[in-house]
Amino acid sequence: MKIILLGPPGAGKGTQSKVLAKRLNLPHISTGDLLRQNVAGGTELGKEAKRFTNKGMFVPHDLVTKMLVDRFQKPDLKNGFILDGYPRNLKQAEVLDGIFNAKKELIDIVIYLDTSESVVIQRLSGRLVCKSCGGNFHVKNMPPKVSGVCDSCKGELYQREDDKEATIRNRLEVYKKEVSCLLDYYKESNRLHAVLADEDAPVVLEKIIQLIKAGNDTSKVG
Ligand code: AMP
Question: Is pTM, for the whole model, over 0.85?
Fold first, then answer.
């Protein structure tokens, strides 16, 4: 099954994708994580991407799309995947469908994590990420047992450069500019489902699971 999670920065796409990936036994692909790995590894792609990610701007289309296409070549994706962070605009959605249509395959379900702006800002400004395993914590909502240390792998926790307040606002502006075309695109092809995602992560997760299990038409955004 090929699943896309859409939503503003801070909607919980990364958090939900990681848990869903385990529950459904599917790989999780996050373009943000792939870019951060490249930045941390000092690759050419990472050096180029960093100029954009640090400001909360989109990384140029060709760069991010090529990176994703390379990831799609790996054999672990034969049963599907959970994709988070891509597409972010109409052009990327069309490219993605093009890739799979050429193989006579389809993105099966697109889940939109509908989240209010105040919740997004509160989540992002308190978010902590593990340098080693990428696990997410939050200073108030989900604090680690030991301050600054990842519960799972004992890695060091840090605040993402683009989770600083000014950059968060920029990311939200960029997101808002693009999202309605993207939602319309998936609505028209009857693949869009919405989940209200202001609640705590476990509550939202159950809603997503029910949706995937049931293939439930009632949540379709019409
Ligand atoms: P994320 O971890 O999804 O919040 O992504 C972090 C940053 O990576 C974004 O603010 C963008 O700068 C960049 N990025 C991630 N995915 C994409 C994409 N599909 N297109 C362009 N830039 C992206």
Answer: yes
